[in-house]
Design goal:
This is Sulfotransferase domain-containing protein. With about 450 residues, the protein is α/β, with parallel strands linked by helices.
């Protein structure tokens, strides 16, 4: 805070000097600010202005000097190296201490709707864990299976599980319950007892069907869809910032003692990622098929549409019409791009698709984790063995079992979309995609 020495008494003390003006100053204290009013003589005002002028000139000179510095690639590498050294040092320090388990408190408002979220109860706070500590030295590290929904996630998880006879995991523990109706966490806070489980996640897949399957020694493949994929809603509901997307990659849902919770595990547990791609046209139609199957139980909700080209286009027309005004009024879409895409059925799913993959690349790069790119189509007969071997090698797993043969998914692009629509999608995705993203999407056009 800058101090300016002044002479003379204030009018409140009876000074006879002429006081030119009242000076209003904001004094900042932590996160609060205080408005201070003081009076100055004309000479004091001039001295005060001179001080401000000098400080402004100094600030400009510093800013100019800083802006003239360009960081070379070597400098960037050095900075990254220092960050890595700092991270390794922090991990080394973590090995010196063993985390203490914290007693789980009963769920707040159990049996009642939570005011913050009607669907979830906030997870009880727990100590973060370190798999480098003595208590967790045998625990596997997390290898994300990052995928836009309906792009081959389930098949990939089942393939790894059955080929290696090891367990896989998921952020969505509420979909994988044991015989007692609870999720089964991968990690524990010390002793492997029910009360000592670390409920932040992730959670084992199909715990009731895991007899004879071992815990992987190196990496546990963990399903996550991250965020930004919600369909049939307004743009503001599915747009994610880089930070919020990363948090959703780490976010979990689970059931404990009949109560549904939300959790979030530490990013330090994630050491690798498999980034799964699928043909965007096939992916969008597969999402429709999944939604149709889920919603057909609600009588009349699908508006009589069927799993066919006509049913798909009718469903998309209904969805596109519903959110047409929201999209036009949203800051998310550029007018020129929206004008091109409005004629494409379920066009908002293509926006979600490309933005999801953009953010997935940003997230893995930001976390500095080793990433394998996997195309769903590479499970085909001619490339299956090569793809399978690369996948197991990446996860440091041995092949010890057998799995069901891969059934080629139906190709929808030419049947469900016109040539003009495919050309528009290519043009827009190329415009919206990061250079890295487009490098892996280009094969589909």
């Amino acid at each position: 805070m800058m101090a300016v020495e002044t002479e003379g008494l204030s009018p409140r003390r009876g000074s006879s000097k002429r006081w030119r003006a009242a000076c209003f100053l904001f004094v900042f204290m932590g996160s609060s600010s205080l408005l201070v009013t003081t009076f100055m003589t004309e000479d004091q005002v001039q001295r005060f202005q001179a001080v401000l002028l000098r400080q402004n000139q100094v600030a400009k000179s510093k800013s100019k000097a800083a802006s003239s510095i360009s960081i070379s690639d070597d400098d960037n590498a050095t900075i990254r190296g220092r960050k890595q050294q700092k991270k390794l040092a922090q991990q080394k320090n973590a090995t010196k201490t063993t985390t203490t388990s914290s007693r789980l408190r009963p769920a707040p408002n159990q049996g009642k709707k939570n005011k913050e979220s009607p669907l979830f109860v906030k997870a009880p706070p727990q100590n973060s864990i370190s798999i480098t500590s003595d208590a967790h030295k045998t625990d596997p590290r997390i290898a994300w299976l990052m995928s836009f929904p309906n792009s081959g996630t389930s098949y990939t998880g089942q393939l790894v599980k059955h080929l290696t006879r090891t367990k896989t995991a998921s952020n969505y523990g509420e979909q994988n319950l044991d015989l007692q109706g609870s999720s089964v966490p991968v990690y524990h806070d010390g002793n492997k007892k029910q009360k000592d489980r670390n409920w932040q996640g992730p959670f084992y897949v199909d715990p009731t069907q895991s007899k004879g399957y071992e815990t992987p020694h190196a990496y546990v493949l963990t399903k996550t869809h991250c965020g930004g994929y919600t369909t049939n809603t307004s743009p503001e509901r599915y747009v994610e910032a880089t930070h919020s997307f990363r948090r959703r990659c780490l976010s979990t849902r689970y059931v404990k003692n009949g109560t549904l919770y939300k959790g979030e595990y530490d990013a330090a547990l994630v050491h690798k990622a498999i980034h799964l791609f699928r043909n965007p046209f096939d992916n969008v139609v597969s999402r429709f098929n999944f939604e149709h199957k889920r919603l057909e139980k609600k009588k009349g909700y699908t508006n009589g549409s069927t799993k066919s080209r006509e049913g798909f286009r009718a469903f998309c027309q209904q969805m596109d019409t519903t959110w047409k005004e929201s999209e036009r009024n949203s800051i998310v879409y550029e007018d020129s791009i929206l004008a091109k895409m409005e004629s494409v059925p379920c066009h908002s799913d293509f926006f979600r698709y490309v933005e999801w993959h953009n953010l997935a690349f940003v997230t893995t790069q930001d976390l500095g984790i080793e990433t394998m790119i996997l195309h769903y189509e590479d499970y085909g007969a001619s490339t299956f063995e090569t793809t399978k071997n690369k996948l197991l090698e990446f996860l440091e797993l041995e092949e010890r079992g057998v799995s069901s043969p891969f059934k080629d998914g139906k190709v929808y692009s030419k049947e469900y979309f016109t040539k003009k629509e495919r050309e528009v999608v290519k043009e827009v995705l190329q415009q919206l995609a990061l250079k890295t993203t487009w490098g892996y999407l280009e094969r589909y056009f």
